Amino acid sequence: MPLYEALYEGLKPFTWLILEAFFDPFVVGIGLFMGWKADQFGKLILAGLAAGLAGTAVTFILRMFDVSWFEGGYLFGGAHALFRIVAGFAWSVLGFAVARTKTQRRDRSPEV
Fold it and tell me: What is the pLDDT of residues 47-96, one digit of tens each?
């Protein structure tokens, strides 16, 4: 069995949790904002950590009041926090890349 098939089979129970982590609005918002504001690539690790943990905390607070879209995760232990941290890092990398691209294009634009 190739490695990618083994990885896919291993993550199959977590599919919904992974999708939920990558589309959590708090993780997306905080990750993009902190990635946009980061001035060094190394800070994106902290941005991902902050986005993931903030998203997890807000989700659990909302879950206590039965307001949340988050149904589960208790079964998977800390996997929901881990996937949100990875998702926060991915969104912060995207925000960092877009901000750097915008800055580079602004630097090369002709003066009017």
Answer: 999 999 998 888 888 877 877 665 655 556 677 889 999 999 999 999 99
Q: Report if residue 11 sits inside a domain.
A: no
- Asked if residue 71 belongs to a domain, the reply is yes
Residue 66's domain spans which residues?
Answer: 25-108
For the chain, give the DSSP string. Answer: --HHHHHHHHHGGGHHHHHHHHT-HHHHHHHHHHHHH-SSTTHHHHHHHHHHHHHHHHHHHHHHTT--S----STTTTHHHHHHHHHHHHHHHHHHHHHHHHHHHHHHSPP-
Count structural domains, the chain.
Answer: 1
State residue 88's pLDDT score: 95
Does residue 7 form part of some domain? Answer: no
Type of residue at 54: A
pTM above 0.85, yes or no: no
